[in-house]
Structure prediction request, 143 residues.
Amino acid sequence: MNAYEEYMQAIVKPMRQELVDVGFKELTTPDEVNEFMASAKGVALVVINSVCGCAAGSARPAVRAAIQEVKPDHLVTVFAGQDREATAQMRAYFEEIPPSSPSIAILRDGQLEYFIPREQIEGYSVEQISDHLTGVLKQACSK
Prediction:
């Protein structure tokens, strides 16, 4: 590992931990993504995490707030720009959606049911994003 990679790992550690601390499982390799997708039954919340300001100031806080109200069966995350292969593998499961990060996917039995792209995160308040996600999760989890 080179000095840049070590530096970036140290920088993103707290960004990763924000989601891990509330129950998210990190998927860091393509194999972990494939294993999860092959076995995920029920509703899964997938966060494509990022180092950008809208991930830190909006997406992660909104996700943490939403799952306090509605908790799906699975919580997983991949980190764009850090775990590149894992992120690319996750995105391959919903390839009709242009890549964006941060972003949030709701899956049912491994199939994309709803997607919140960066454009619906950046510029919105934590409360707006959380309310949006909570509504989607309530609907998805009540089926």
